[in-house]
Structure formats: C-alpha cells, structure tokens
Design goal:
Layout (H helix, E strand, L loop, with lengths): L16 E12 L9 E7 L2 E7 L6 E2 L5 H4 L2 H27 L7 E12 L5 E9 L2 E7 L4 E3 L6 H8 L2 H30 L5 E5 L7 E8 L5 E6 L2 E2 L4 E2 L3 E2 L5 E7 L10 E7 L2 E6 L5 E2 L7 H19 L29 E12 L9 E7 L2 E7 L6 E2 L5 H4 L2 H27 L7 E12 L5 E9 L2 E7 L4 E4 L5 H8 L2 H30 L5 E5 L7 E8 L5 E6 L2 E2 L4 E2 L3 E2 L5 E7 L3 H6 L2 E7 L2 E6 L5 E2 L6 H5 L6 H24 L1
Parallel strand pairs: 9-18, 27-36
Antiparallel strand pairs: 1-2, 1-5, 2-3, 3-4, 5-6, 6-7, 7-8, 9-10, 10-15, 11-12, 11-16, 13-15, 14-15, 16-17, 19-20, 19-23, 20-21, 21-22, 23-24, 24-25, 25-26, 27-28, 28-33, 29-30, 29-34, 31-33, 32-33, 34-35
Helix pairs in contact: 5-12
Length: 660
C-alpha cells in the first residue's frame, strides 16, 4: 500500500475569479503497481482539461471541447514538454534526496504554476510553487521578481535561479500576458460547449411504493440545484445525492422524495436550475419512468382481442395464412464471460495507516479500513473519531455492543500508532518529511475446502518492515531497524498463541458472519435497467443501477449476436451503497428497427433483458411543433397513450368482426 500526495483543487466555475493551472508530480520509491512515477495535470477553474503520465507517455484531453486542440501543432508541442519535464524530474528527485540526507522511502517533488484572472476587473495574478514531500520548497515572488525559500536545502537552487535575469523576465511576461491569453481562449472553448450541456431530467421510480427520484444528468459544469416542490413550496424532507461524473465528462445528480398516498391531490414538481436555466418536471403517472410492469388484466384482454381479430379474419376469408415462427433470441453464452460473485476464496482484511508530516487539510493522520472481498465495509479516521458502516447490511452491526468495542479499539490503535511512527522515524534517522506506518492483517477462507490462512504485515514508508509467519509462529523482518521489535514480539509467547488462535478461528468466524449478512442483502438488490436516449440521432445507453455487489456484465446483442463496438462505462457508486454502470451503443433508428437489438444485464446469476423498441426508450426528446400539430405524439408519455388507444381500437374491431 502507498499513500500519494496530490494537490486538491476547489472548483471555481461560477466565480468571477478564474484559474488556469498546471501541476507536475514526480514520485520516487516503491509504490503500488499502476501508479505512475510522473503525472502532469492541467485544470481550468478546478476542472481537469488534460492529463499526462509516465505510463501512457501521451497528453490526453479530458474534456470534449479540448478535442479541437488535439489536431493542432501546439498539442504536440505540449506533449513534448511533458516528456521533457518527466526526464528532468527523474534527475531532480535523487538530487533532493541527497540534500535532505534521504537514501530510501517514498518521496515526491511537485510544481504548481498558472494564473488567476478576474473577468470583472480584468486583474490577473501569476503563481509558481514548488514542493518536496508535501512541504513548501521554492516559490516565485512575481512582485519582487525573485525566488524565495523557507528551507536551507533550497538555497543553492534559489541563488542560481535568481541570477538568471533573462528567465525571470520571461516568466514575468508569461504570467502577465501569455498565461492569461490561454486562460481566456480555453474559457471561450468551454463556454461554446457549455451551451450544449443542459441537464436531461427524468422522474424515476422502482415500483409504486418506492420514493420518486428526480435524476438530472448530462450537464456541465457540475454546479446544479435540484428542488422538489409541493404546490409551489419547497419540500425539505428529501434525500439529495452527491454529484457524480459521467463517462463523457458531464455530471449527474439526483433528489429522492417519499410520496404520501394522497400525492395526486396536490401538484408535485421537480425543479432543476443549471447555468441560469430552469427545467421543471410536473409529477404525473405519465412522467414517471419505471421498469415496474404489474401483471394485470389489461395485457390479457389485449391478447384476447388480437386473437379474436385473427380468428375472425381467418374464418371470413377463403385463404389461409401461413405464420412464420418468430426467431427466438438466443441467450448469450456464459462460457466466455464469467463473474466470480460467489468466490470460493474470500478475504477479510483490516488496514491501519498512520501518516506523520504536513499533509492537506482533508487527509486524516490516522485511518482504519475493514474490507470483505475487496469491498469496504467500515471506516474510521482521526478526524471523525467514529467507526462508520460503509454497507447497508453493516447497519445491523451498529446497534450492537461489539460495534462500540471496535470503535474503542480504533481509538486506542490511533494513539499507539502516533507514538510508533515517531519511534520508527528515529530508528531510520528521519527528522522531517512525510512518513507512514501501516498494518494489514486478516484471513483468507476457501468456502469449498474450508481451508483458511491468516496474515499480519507491518510496513514503514511503503516498504515491508515486520510480518508474522503463522507456520513458524514467529515474526520476521527484512531490515535491521526491525530486529529489536521482532525479538521483543517473539519473546511474548502468550501473544503469539493468541494470534494463532485468532487467525485460525475467530477471524474466520467473523468472515463467515459478514458473508452471511452480505448474502442476505444481495438477494434483495437486483439492478434496475433502463434504455436511455437524448434524441433519435443520439446513441442508446443501457443503464443498470441500484445493484449490489458491483460485479455486473452488460451486453448488447444484435439478432442474438454480441456487439463488441460499444462504449462501456465505469462502475460508479450510488448514494445508498449500490452501484450503477452503462453501456452505450451507436445505432441509427433505421438499423435497430430492421433488426432485433437487446441489452442483456447479468448480475448475481440473474439475467435482465431489455428489447430495443420505441416504447422501451426513455427520453426527454420533444418532436418539433409542426409534427405535434399534425397529431403525432410529442413525448414518450403521449406515445404510451396513443399505444393504449390503438389497443382499444383493435379490441373493438376484433369483437365486431368476430360477431359477424
């Protein structure tokens, strides 16, 4: 495990003061696989607009409106600059480690530079800051036009940079003119794009007794206000969800309302405000999008009417009709795609992390996380001082005496770790910088063979420090600094016997108990599946939401054959601990009406299938007024009414012809 320091940006999308900023982060030392050694991020008003790292070696646009930049020569030039800076950082970090007398551990070197611009007063301000291990290292004072530093290790560099008057004059001009120029240009590109990013608003409900959710999605930037109104008055007792990112860089947010039984006696409306525009949805049965399909007499009567019509036509004619058997869509094979939801090998882990050194305000000094099969189930940190359940099924635990006991254990461990990290810093001759002490312990359990395996590992600055060998029942260490503690722990035979008993029995007991709690909950949480489309020319999105656990497979089929060319979204968390995922298909109405398209969602051995039809597509699209005047339905709800009228006419025709 490794803790990486990154700057936190505060969005300023609607403020008069705009910020254009680039951040470079170089990391040296053993980190988690997949974490790049060098990262460069550019942001506009806190919104990431491009990204580069040492793994991809490519500058990637993070907003659609930045695509216009990709084909330009300037984009290639910026990419080359990132690669050059990466090489410089690979050299600089070892030099800084020498100056700070550091020979190992994880260390970071960062630069944050850019400019602020007030679009009302026209005033601008540049900034250029360097940090080492999260501490201020060097900064540029543009008023005095010189570099300054609070640490002696940077004096040599400051003196050298201050002697380069040509470079200082160039930076002064850059931050005063060129930086502000690019800030304004990018704002123009974003503003043009924002005009096309108004939210789509839908009213969703799982079944008639569920809360009604007002979902606003596809908007940018992220600032949005959602309000439920009753007869024009704000309703306070609502559940407001977090603003979540969509795959295309836009955002979504929802607001849920528990309706009273007599809701039809009042006028309820959801009001969404974004970028000075207001969208209002009046709550009616036709506006509610739902997958709930009650088994009622309506469908049966319709089928009987259709059968009567067919029989009457058959009797009244001298010709007979040969009916073609409809092609049944084959169920996609599961041999190629397996979901290991009910894993044979389960893991129950608790992780403690203590951080010493200057960090961001949002980062706690101590945190404790417990997970089951990689799913976080509880969380504690030194800021909240509370053990918080992270899954709904863990709520049953919160009221028990044992929950209080575990909270007290976390508080005790927090105090011990605060002392331990200072002791370890002395042993490793560290007097400053950011340092971490971590412990990861728990057990694995095979529910088929019933074999179990315990583990207990300690780390300092991300490197192995001490671990427990349960076969030999003794602690081992790979570093000299760990020998005194290893000998002390190995001499405590009573503690070793207790740990042996815990990992072989008690740990496995709790693992199975939590598995049972989760299994009971999982049986009640299947995904809701919707087919969504912005307008007839837009891609069709299959959205599965409200499911738990997070493993799910979404497949698009064309005449029973899997379609590979789709845009699969990431699995995102919902507010209630469940998950959502999307799969987007680019297909024209002409194509899907001539073929049979279906979205198949598989979760927990259950399969949900949605056939792509006009009736199944949920959309906010309105037909142009000239079409509405000709009698065509303008909304999905009106299409539903038209469909019902056609059914009634078919029934009347069937009965009439049958009577003849």
């Amino acid at each position: 495990m490794k803790f990486i320091i990154f700057f936190i940006y505060v969005p300023l999308v609607y403020s008069e003061l705009h910020r254009f900023m680039t951040t470079y982060t170089g990391i040296r030392g053993r980190t988690i696989a997949g974490i790049p050694e060098f990262v460069a991020v550019t942001s506009l008003d806190g919104q990431q607009i491009d990204y580069y790292d040492s793994i991809t070696m490519k500058l990637i646009p993070k907003q659609d409106w930045m695509e216009e930049f990709v084909s330009e020569e300037l984009w290639t030039e910026d990419n080359d600059i990132r690669q050059y800076v990466q090489k410089i950082y690979n050299i600089n970090i070892p030099l800084l480690m020498e100056r700070f007398n550091q020979s190992h551990g994880v260390h970071t070197y960062q630069r944050m530079y850019g400019c602020d611009w007030d679009d009302v007063t026209g005033e601008s301000r540049g900034f250029d800051l360097y940090a080492y291990d999260g501490e201020n290292f060097i900064s540029l004072d543009l008023k005095e036009l010189r570099y300054i530093t609070p640490v002696v290790q940077a004096m040599q560099t400051v003196e050298m940079w201050n002697n380069d008057k040509t470079q200082l004059e160039y930076l002064k001009q850059y931050y005063k003119h060129e930086c502000v120029y690019w800030l304004k240009e990018l704002m123009k590109l974003r503003k043009y794009d924002l005009e096309r990013r108004a939210p789509e608003v839908s009213l969703l409900q799982k079944h008639p007794s569920s809360p009604v959710t007002c979902l606003a999605t596809g908007f940018y930037p992220s600032g949005v206000t959602i309000t439920w109104l009753r007869n024009g008055v704000n309703i306070r007792n609502v559940d407001l969800g977090e603003t979540l990112p969509n795959e295309d860089g836009t955002f979504q947010r929802n607001l849920s309302l528990k309706l009273p039984d007599e809701w039809k006696q009042s006028q309820y409306a959801c009001e969404v405000e974004h970028m000075g525009k207001t969208i209002q949805k009046i709550l009616t049965e036709d506006e509610i999008k739902t997958n709930y399909r009650p088994i009622n007499a309506y469908l049966r009567i319709t089928l009987w009417c259709l059968m009567g019509l067919v029989i009457a036509l058959a009797i009244g004619t001298v010709f007979f009709i040969i009916y073609k058997k409809p092609k049944h869509e084959p169920v996609p094979s599961e041999s190629k795609e397996n979901i290991y939801i009910n894993k044979e090998l389960h893991t129950f882990i608790t992780e403690y992390t203590e951080i010493n050194g200057k960090m961001t305000e949002e980062t706690p000094e101590f945190s404790a996380v417990t997970s089951l099969d990689g799913q976080q189930i509880d969380y504690y940190d030194s800021d909240t001082m509370k053990l918080i359940p992270k899954q709904d099924w863990m709520e049953e635990f919160a009221s028990e005496e044992l929950w209080k006991k575990y909270t007290e254990i976390r508080k005790q461990v927090q105090q011990i770790y605060k002392i331990n990290v200072h002791v370890l810093m002395e042993q490793f001759h560290h007097t400053y910088g950011v340092h971490t002490y971590q412990r990861m312990y728990g057990c694995n359990y095979d529910d088929e063979t019933e074999d179990s395996h315990g583990f207990d590992q300690h780390a300092y600055d991300g490197e192995n420090f001490i671990s427990l060998d349960l076969k030999e029942l003794r602690y081992i260490t790979a570093v000299a600094q760990g020998f005194p503690l290893m000998r002390k722990w190995n001499n405590d035979q009573d503690q070793l016997k207790f740990l042996n008993q815990y990992y072989n029995h008690e740990c496995v007991y709790w693992l199975n108990k939590f598995l049972a709690l989760r299994k009971a909950e999982v049986q009640r949480i299947a995904p809701e599946v919707y087919l969504l489309q912005k307008d007839p020319s837009s891609p069709v999105t299959c959205r599965a939401t409200g499911f738990y656990p997070s493993e799910v497979i979404i497949t698009w089929l064309r005449n029973g054959v899997t379609i590979r060319d789709v845009d699969l979204g990431e699995t995102l968390p919902n507010e209630d601990g469940t998950f959502q995922k999307t799969s987007t298909l680019r297909v024209t109405p002409g194509e899907w009406k001539q073929n049979r398209y279906a979205c198949v969602v598989k979760h927990q051995d259950k399969t949900i299938r949605k056939i792509l039809t006009d009736y199944e597509i949920k959309t906010n699209y309105r037909l142009p007024t000239r079409w509405t005047k000709l009698g065509f339905p303008s909304t999905a709800s009106q299409q539903t009414k038209t469909f019902r009228i056609i059914h009634i006419l078919l029934c009347v025709m069937g009965v009439f012809i049958f009577a003849l």
